[in-house]
Amino acid sequence: MTEAFTEIVIPKEKAVFWLDKNGCWHNDTGKFRHKKIIDFFHASIRKDKNGYHLYQENNNCREKVYFHYEDTALFVFDILENDNMTLILNTGRRMTLNPEKLIIQGDNIFSLGSVGKKDAQNCLIFNSVSIISAT
Question: Which domains, ranges and CATH numbers included, belong to the chain?
Answer without folding.
Answer: 6-69 (3.10.540), 76-134 (no CATH)
